[in-house]
């Protein structure tokens, strides 16, 4: 199975802002976030959204919340796989939101499996 990076980068979070990353191609994807810089008092929310039918409404399909400094053996958070055959703009959307704490630099990527 081939694995490719659909998108990747480092996001400097703005507390209270949902940073989004859209996927507009068919496939199966996972969202990876490295919370190495998280500290006491920080809270991060990761979400995956999906459109079920062409022209439909994007809705949350997966959500996870992480608080404080993360254990050394669990710094990288990986979403459940999400698949979609649609090519609508943002048919799959991954998002990261820091709801509390100090803005952090967070490496991320969305992987596509084929």
Average pLDDT confidence is: 97
Q: How helix-rich are the residues, as a percent range?
A: under 10%
Written as H for each helix and E for each strand, in order along the chain, the element string is EEEEEEEEE
Number of domains: 1
Radius of gyration: 14 Å
Overall structural class, as computed from helix and strand content, comes to: mainly beta
Low-confidence stretches are: none
Question: How would you sum up the global shape?
Answer: globular
Distance between the termini: 6 Å
Q: What's the helix count?
A: 0
Overall CATH class: Mainly Beta
| Number of E-type strands | 9
CATH architect. name: Sandwich
* CATH fold descriptor: Jelly Rolls
Quick structural summary:
The chain is mainly beta and 114 residues long. The protein is 0% helix and 57% strand.
């Amino acid at each position: 199975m081939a694995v490719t990076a659909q998108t990747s980068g480092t996001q400097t979070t703005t507390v209270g802002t949902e940073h989004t990353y859209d996927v507009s191609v068919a496939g199966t994807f996972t969202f990876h976030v490295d919370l190495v810089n998280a500290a006491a008092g920080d809270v991060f929310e990761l979400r995956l959204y999906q459109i079920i039918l062409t022209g439909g409404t994007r809705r949350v399909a997966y959500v996870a919340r992480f608080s404080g400094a993360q254990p050394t053996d669990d710094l990288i958070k990986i979403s459940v796989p999400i698949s979609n055959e649609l090519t609508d703009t943002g048919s799959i959307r991954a998002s990261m939101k820091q709801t509390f704490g100090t803005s952090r630099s967070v490496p991320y990527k969305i992987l596509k499996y084929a």
